[in-house]
Specification:
The protein is an alpha+beta fold. The chain has a single domain, classed as START domain (Alpha-D-Glucose-1,6-Bisphosphate, Chain A, domain 4). 26% of the residues lie in helices and 49% in strands. The protein is built from three helices and seven strands, in the order βααββββββα. A seven-stranded antiparallel sheet has the order 1-7-6-5-4-3-2, covered by helices on one side. The N and C termini lie far apart (36 Å).
Length: 138
């Protein structure tokens, strides 16, 4: 498994940060590795969806759990990626620490490339977090 953690401090309260990051339909705007999002079903704070990732336009299924103003858990349930991405919001006075933690691997024969894509995912995550920070602090 590849474990990746990236965090950024945002000069805004949790409510404002949550307003941006919880709009998960907008994910491709910030996360360049996500090309397209298609919601399949929604039951309260649980959304099942299909995402198209930039890696060879592969489609993956995800179950996303929203825990308002605390975290977003995106569990990969089918496709080339196995594992999860968790986005956490940590209040710090008038600011917010936004943390993204990945625990993933590529499935099947592609598993041998997990280490190679780790750098790519970390870089994409750093870029996404910076874009979110800039959007919120504007």
């Amino acid at each position: 498994m590849a474990t990746i953690e990236v965090e950024v401090e945002i000069n805004a309260p949790v409510d404002k940060v949550w307003g941006i990051v919880s709009d998960i339909d907008n994910e491709p705007k910030f996360w360049k590795g996500t090309k397209e999002v298609k919601n399949i079903s929604k039951d309260g704070n649980i959304i099942n969806r299909e995402i198209t990732i930039a890696f060879r336009d592969q489609k993956c299924l995800q179950e996303v759990r929203l825990q308002p103003k605390e975290r977003i858990e995106a569990k990969f349930t089918k496709g080339i990626i196995d594992g999860e991405k968790i986005i956490s919001l940590i209040p710090k006075e008038e600011k917010t620490i936004l943390r993204t933690a990945w625990d993933i691997k590529l499935t099947g024969i592609m598993g041998m490339f997990t280490g190679m894509i780790k750098k790519h995912i970390k870089s994409g995550t750093e870029q996404a977090m910076q874009s979110i920070k800039e959007e919120i602090e504007r």
